[in-house]
Design a protein that fits this description.
By secondary structure, the chain is mainly β. It has one domain: Roll (Pnp Oxidase, Chain A). Helix content is about 5%, strand content about 40%. Strands 1, 2, 3, 4, 5, 6, 7 and 8 form an eight-stranded antiparallel β-sheet that branches. It starts with 16 loop residues before the first strand and ends with a helix.
């Protein structure tokens, strides 16, 4: 790693596409509309080990939690119903970002739950719907099309970077469904 100002990113991707993979697999990705302030959090729960003298001797990983958060800027009945109906569904999520250096970073979460519910403020100004997506532990390795998205058991998400966008997977929605 060296200093490279072309690797400084100043904006997000602006597009999140999802497709239902269970209970009814849908092969088509749906664009959720305009987004505001998106972020991906990959957090590790760590357990500290100390001896009886109080010396800090180690830390061990005790689990990983991956969350994608954003807000839907479109707040019509269509978006409200989507959030309400997400409660019993599993999704695959795709988020592309064009970087300042002309490359594309693409994030694919093969198995996810969208946390349902919304808090709508009826006020002057912009209204938003909070969007929280929890990546789930994939129970199977996945062979994908394009192959850049191939993943191992337990790989919560795939982040790729290329000079041109690969796009969302074009394989059948039953492929990620097998990892539920």
């Amino acid at each position: 790693m060296a200093k490279d100002r072309r690797q400084i990113s100043v904006k997000g991707g602006g597009t999140l596409k999802v497709r239902q993979i269970d209970p009814t697999p849908n092969n088509t990705f749906t664009d959720l509309g305009f987004l505001g302030e998106s972020k991906l959090t990959d957090a590790y729960n760590m357990i500290e080990s100390k001896d009886d003298a109080g010396n800090y001797i180690d830390t061990k990983e005790a689990g990983e939690e991956v969350t994608f958060e954003s807000s839907l800027l479109q707040t019509a009945k269509e978006q409200i119903d989507f959030m309400k109906n997400a409660k019993d569904q599993y999704f695959e999520c795709y988020y592309p970002v064009l970087l300042n250096n002309g490359k594309y970073q693409e994030i694919l979460i093969p198995v996810a739950r969208i946390i349902p519910g919304e808090e709508l403020e009826f006020k002057a100004g912009e209204r938003r719907i909070k969007l929280t997506i929890k990546a789930l532990w994939p129970a199977a390795a996945l062979t994908r099309n394009p192959t850049d998205y191939n993943s191992a058991i337990g790989e919560y998400y795939k982040l790729i970077e290329n000079s041109s966008a690969k796009g969302a997977p074009v394989d059948n929605a039953t492929v990620p469904q097998a990892a539920i």
